[in-house]
Amino acid sequence: MNRENVIQTAVAAHVAMFGQQSESIAWAPGRIEVLGNHTDYNDGTVLSAAINMGHCFCISRSTRCGIHALAVDVEQVAKFELTDTEKVEGAGWANYIKGVFYYIQEHLGKPIRGLDCTFLGSIPMGAGLSSSAALEVAAAYALLDLLSETIDKKEIASLCRKAEHNFAGTNCGLLDQFSSIFGREHGLIHSDFRSLEVSGVDLATDVEFLVVNPKVKHSLADSPYNERRERCEQAAAQLADLLPHKVTALRDVSWEEFESCKEQIAPQAAKRAAHVVGEITRVESGVDALAKGDLKAFGKMLFESHQSSIDNFENSCAELDVVVDAAREAGALGARLSGGGFGGAAIVMVHTAEAKVIGEKIRAICKTKEIEPDIIEITPSAGARVLSSFCEYGVV
Ligand code: GLA
User: Fold this and answer.
1) In CATH, what number is assigned to the domain containing residue 215?
2) Residue 14 DSSP SS3
3) Is there an atom of ligand 1 within 6 Å of 38 CB?
4) pLDDT single digits (tens) 158-196
5) Which end of the chain is more exposed for a tag (fewer CB within 10 A), N or C?
6) Ligand 1 pocket, 136 CB below 6 A?
7) How far is the centre of ligand 1, averaged over its atoms, from the C-alpha of 341 (Å)?
8) Does residue 141 share a domain with residue 208?
9) Which residues are catalytic, by number?
10) Nearest protein Cα to ligand 1, atom 2
């Protein structure tokens, strides 16, 4: 379904379920992580893009108590109050909405009650394209518009992350929410998760990304994501004792410093740190390569990033390795797993003119390994927004 269809379907479902029009509607995209894996919660930098798939969130006031939320795709309604931080039973998706609403309410310092909500998305679940962050951001934008309240965009990202930590159990960084909020049409964003500065990075017009999803089940809350984060923090603490300058996160350690100290820290922590410090180094070289138009060098960094995921962070899996090898064999510029890992999808960077041919070659190579991936062409897209007029989508 394209974006307009998603919006029309959600808007119509809202009326059918709740008997009244949406008062506010928002759209928030998913994202691809282009380079910089597990660097965000280490105060590092990432290159990413918002994509042309996302969530539409519709909302209206209700005279009934509590929040009623309809998930159109699974045809399920959840009901909850914002008076506690208890998880919503039997509807895992509702926790993202409850979490976001709960922290917005806390931030605004006034109670929120009586709302009807409907959402629908076009992001394949479990593909590592941040469908949950898109839902959170869309819910936040729609609610704030309904309440005529404004919260700084970076603060919105942070409230959404808090919801993810405390309602979904993943101690993620800010990458997914930043990408969904600050995405640019036809471009990448370069986010610095220490200064929280975001800048645009242009992408050559003849280059695009394929998302190749081998459809391995993926849930960050069940994955060793949180354990990896702890190892990174352990590495930073041990390196802080060895280095002469202040180290509060792996961001503070250069590749040379890491190399000179790595034998003196816990071996597992050292492997995880090798990935993160290497990735932060690659992001900075990657930005330079893109500025020079050196796509070959940039693509090579994507392959190196994936190899480091295999060797150091151990967050790849056999199916993703097949996809990345297939991409290399098919002549792609670069490829790597994108996002948390432990499943999900790989991104493949290609010249636009070769996208179809390379996609088909990847499919054929994967088939010989009994993998039948979904392959989607991605368009880097603008970030989240409130849809001020939904008449433009053909819904009155
Ligand atoms: C997930 C998390 C992000 C980030 C990536 C890995 O997408 O939600 O915060 O850590 O994994 O880079």
Assistant:
1) 3.30.70.3170
2) helix
3) yes
4) 999 999 999 998 999 999 999 999 999 999 999 999 999
5) C
6) no
7) 9
8) no
9) 176
10) 172
